[in-house]
Amino acid sequence: MSKQAIPEPGRSNAKGKRAPQVADAAPLANDIRPGQSIELLKELHILTRDGKLNQDSRRKLKQVYHLYQFIEPLLAEVLQQHPDVTLVDHGAGKSYLGFILYDLFFKALQGAPHIYGIETREELVKKSEELAARLGFGGMSFVNLSVADSITSDRLPSQIDVVTALHACDTATDDAIHFALAKQARFIVLVPCCQAEVASVLNRNKGKSLGNSLTEIWRHPLHTREFGSQVTNVLRCLQLEAHGYKVSVTELVGWEHSMKNELIIAQYRDLPRRRPTERLQEVLRTLGLEEMGQRFFTQQAA
């Protein structure tokens, strides 16, 4: 079998596509932060094997730093209270986020800070463990569990400072919220993904409320899917507020190519719970979603 020629940077390949441009002109120091592990960036395919950036990896690095600028102040606030900062990353995958956070923030800390990556695919857990060992990242652990099972697992501490869940599919985001509430997390960072459950219930109950003109919002399948996704995140925000959290919602810059770029950040402030609880229940009733009350539980209903 003949080997396929690899196009040189900047030249067209057989299909007419141009290979990624390697950034020789700009010094690498202008793109990465002081003290950042070059080996880690290579392992995460942010840097090429020869330690350079191409156009795609520079975009990826920009995304990483943009997300980090939201999470770093939360970690710093926890650090003001105690040195043993703990973070759980749900649906960790290759633990991309966990490794970057550890490299940029955790590895310089005193005490016993720790990051736990929760992932259902055993092979990814094993690879993450091997990479952490090679890099000397002793404050990282990887647990082969579902998000739902992690809530009651004795392999995790009873309290966690920060909980993250980026693109945890469908109800896994809600399980991550339940985990954070059970662990009394001070901060919760979510980038929700493919919310299908609410859309399914809306579609199933559509015929029961045809007399209500609101059903026109989700009469067509495409609108059902989009509206269901939007309502899911609204209910999540109300649920967090009903548990005393201050919630902010923003967009991740540089993630525009993905529709899953909504960032939800919740900070526990022990805020009044009555109004968001009433609003949540009202939304469920108005949209015929009462059967989902247990998923979006409040303290009164829990």
TrEMBL record:
Alphabetical GO biological process terms: methylation
Gene Ontology molecular function: any one: methyltransferase activity
Pfam family, one: Methyltransf_32
GO cellular component entries: cytoplasm
Keyword Ribosomal protein attributed: no
Classification via Gene3D superfamilies: Vaccinia Virus protein VP39
Keywords, in A-Z order: Methyltransferase, Transferase
Region (Disordered), start-end ranges: 1-23
Keyword Ubl conjugation: no
Source organism superkingdom: Bacteria
Methyltransferase domain sequence ranges: 59-199
Name of the protein this chain belongs to: SAM-dependent methyltransferase
Species of provenance: Herbaspirillum robiniae
